[in-house]
Amino acid sequence: MTSPNTDHAELQITGMRCASCSARLEKSLNQLPGVCAVVNIATEKASLTFDPAQADVNTLLEAVRKTGFDAHPARDFAAEKQDRLKLLRHEQWQFFLSLALTLPLLLEMVGMLVDAHLMLPIWLAWLLATPVQFWAGSRFYIGAWKSLRSGGSNMDVLVALGTSAAYFMSCAVWLLELDQPVYFEASATLITLVLMGKLLEARAKGKASAALESLFNLQPKLAHTERNGQTLDVSVGQLRPDDIFVVRPGESVPVDGIVLEGQSSLDEAMLTGESLPRVKQSGDRIYAATLNQQGLLRCRAIAVGSRTQLSAIIRLVEQAQGSKAPIQKLADQISAIFVPSVLGIAALTFVVWWWLGVGFTVALINAVAVLVIACPCALGLATPTAVVVATGRAAQAGILIRDAAALERAHTLSVLVVDKTGTLTAGKPEVIALEPAAGVAELELLATATALAQHSSHPLSRALTEAASQRGIALANVTDFGEATGQGLYGNVAGLACSLGSPDFIKQQAITLDEIALSTLRSRGQTVIAVVRAGSALGLIALADPVRASSRDAVARLQALGIRVIMLSGDNHETAAAIAAQVGIAEFRAEVLPQDKATHLNALKSKGKLIGMVGDGINDAPALAAADVSFAMKSGSDIAIEAADITLMRNDLMGVADALDLSRATLAKIRQNLFFAFGYNVLGIPLAALGMLNPVIAGAAMALSSVSVVSNALLLKRWKPNDVGTQQAANETNSTN
Q1: What residues are annotated to the active site?
Q2: What is the reported pLDDT for 45?
Q3: What is the pTM of this model?
Q4: Beta strand extents in 449-598 (DSSP E only)
Q5: Stronger pLDDT, 311 or 81, i.e. the higher one
Q6: How do residues 400-435 score in pLDDT, each as one tens digit?
Q7: 228: CB partners within 8 A, 6+ apart
Q8: What does the H/E/C string look like for 414-464?
Q9: Phi/psi at 573 (nearest 5 deg)?
């Protein structure tokens, strides 16, 4: 639900214990009129889009509380981290005290292993188990009560019910002096093990968001600003647009700005993932948190606070980590009925064993084992934890993923359509040759072309104006200027009708061109522009957009991944064929107008293929929108982060291969996690019901199941992008500075 009339809110949720909790809360919020909610158990946040005419933040907070949880509007990362650390310290204290009280209860079990008789008096066992049950285990009772009161059930219900059954049965045996064993050690050990599992899970989840934390930590605290002729040290938050600031060697850039004086090399790895520094000088743009390695830079601030590129990256990563992958839908559906189903299985287990005549104690203990081995947490964490790790790791590599759905779709792509200009090539064409007609001077040819080109923002037009500037050509005035999209320009120069554009566009005007010169230039892979004045051809201008050094390797890597690569180009067939041959692409479409790119993509999609589109954002918007997954390559001076499903912060097609590789690695981890989570419950619950698992062993397995899922997802932190492409992209950038 997105429209100009909607608002967005992020709520930090406390009290969610498992996937059943997040599923119940999400369902409750989505039942509110005008509200669309996504609840993420891994980040413990709710992302909400709502109609302000039907709901507000207070309404949402109240709905969360009625569902049995606490919430507050999400704050900055540092504040949330402090809250998490405070809660973690409290949970550590609970666990270690619970462990200290539980260890003596295990002496009898240890004694059996070493053939010794270590028996605690029952009253002492009760004394040790009681604070564990009702103090350390209070979180389970509170959580269970809130869940049941709101009409739901969660992991707390299972733990509270299972441990209470063992504890109160033991109390009854002791007080009534029955000839039955007591299970105080079982109830205390179960609570201690679950606390341990939750503690390990919290630490692992903290590691999952380490990449996001590292982005926050990059933000500088101080800046050197010039005020009233003096250089003062101020907090970064005090800088405003147009303030003048100084960056010394070894310091981080405080805000986004423009270099006014000085030259230096800046490490922009945090922004682009490139390992090599970029040379910056007067007129170049610099970004907050990039590291100045050498010279002194005097700069003017152009974006501060939440408007910097670093802040935009952080917002996008948070957005991606808060989103939900489609593959999670099955886990959510199962989580919604998981706890009631387990309660039913536990009740059936007790009844069947009681009916078989094994006695009340054995029947109850087997039912307790069913309750404590069931783990909805592993199901809930299987997907979001992997998404959190993957999107954070991607951002560190200069790959910004908009949401989890895009990350999932990317692994299924079979065809990748690549726009030639700015993707396979550098996107900075240069005038290579001037071929004037007989009796026409080169400067006359270029001057006429540039007079029209000065009014266009097309890359070829910019190349013409730059060439004219280098030759000292003055720009003539133009009247009645017009543009034929994707074909050419026209207007009156010095009172004469002039036009320039593709040879085909010019030939449509019944103008004869030098076909030999045209064919020769095209065979070299050069783009040719024809210029006409007063109905006669003035000549041809050849331009070349150099192929990126990494393009051929990137295409080869994509093909090795099983991707069919197709190039789109506005050039004629001969020029497009030459470029395609240089980069190793067998399939290409030539003479494609900007407005026709989307048509080509839809034609491919009609054949049942999942299509990816890579473009540089110039005239690519309709095609990017038509693709199943869109990749936008953005230079450091022109980053539109919201433009595509996946934005590559470095000018390198190898980043697309990296993104596909990471997507496949992530989906593999998610499938492993889901297989383990489902398999664990499918195998564990029947074994417990059959009486083959002691409740303590069942509790230990449950405690470690979610930890193992999170730990498996953390292995994605080892993923690395292709270093060769990164270094080649950095070298290209420096060579153009």
Answers
A1: 419
A2: 86
A3: 0.78
A4: 478-484, 488-493, 496-501, 527-533, 536-544, 564-568, 587-589
A5: 311
A6: 888 888 999 999 999 999 988 778 888 788 899 999
A7: none
A8: CEEEEEHHHHHECCCCEEEEEEECCCCCHHHHHHHHHHHHCCCCCHHHHHH
A9: -60, -40
- Whole-number mean pLDDT of the chain? 85
**Cα distance between residue 130 and residue 122, in whole Å:** 12
Predicted pLDDT at 723? 61
The DSSP result for 692-716, as a single string, is -S-HHHHHHHHHHHHHHHHHHHHGG
**Residues of 487-496 as b/e, b for ≥16 C-beta within 10 angstroms?**
bbbbbebeee
Which residues, in sequence order, are CB contacts of 7 under 8 Å at separation 6+? 49, 50, 51, 52
Q: Taking a C-beta distance cutoff of 8 angstroms, is the pair 698, 648 a contact?
A: no
- CA contacts within 13 A on the Cβ side of 502: 19
Domains of the chain: 7-74 (3.30.70.100), 82-212+317-386+669-717 (no CATH), 222-310 (2.70.150.10), 398-426+547-661 (3.40.50.1000), 430-544 (3.40.1110.10)
Q: Give the strand order in the sheet containing 45-50.
A: 35-40, 45-50, 7-14, 70-73
Which strand (E) or helix (H) includes residue 232?
strand 230-235
Instruction: Identify whether the C-beta of residue 210 lies closer than 8 Å to the C-beta of residue 392.
Output: yes
Concatenating the DSSP letter of every residue in 632-654 gives EE--TT---GGGSSEEESSS-TH
pLDDT in tens, 166-190: 899 889 888 888 777 777 888 888 8
Contact 423, 615 (CB under 8 A): yes
pLDDT grade for 224, boundaries at 50, 70 and 90: very high
Q: What is the pLDDT of residue 618?
A: 57
Find all residues with CB under 8 Å of 139, minimum gap 6, and list them: 94, 156
What pLDDT band is residue 638 in, cutting at 50, 70 and 90?
very low
Give the tokens for residue 234: 């101020």
CA atoms within 13 A on the CB side of 188: 24
pLDDT at position 641: 46
Specify the pairing of strand 230-235 against strand 564-568: unpaired
143, 166, 216: which is closest to 696 by C-alpha? 166
Between β-strands 536-544 and 527-533, what pairing exists: parallel, antiparallel or unpaired?
antiparallel
Dist. CA 234–CA 574, nearest whole Å: 59
pLDDT in tens, 47-66: 888 888 888 889 999 999 98
Query: Distance (Å, rounded) from C-alpha 433 to C-alpha 429?
Result: 12
Pure H helices in 105-183:
107-113, 122-131, 138-149, 155-175
Under a CB-based contact definition with an 8 Å cutoff, are residues 374 and 158 in contact?
yes
Asked if 73 and 56 count as a contact pair (C-beta separation under 8 A), the reply is: no
Paired tokens of 461: 């037009």
pLDDT for position 643: 57
The bridge status of strand 587-589 relative to strand 564-568 is parallel
Reference 449, options 517, 528, 525; nearest CA is 528
Whole-number pLDDT of residue 733: 47
User: Token pair of 142, please?
Assistant: 């509170």
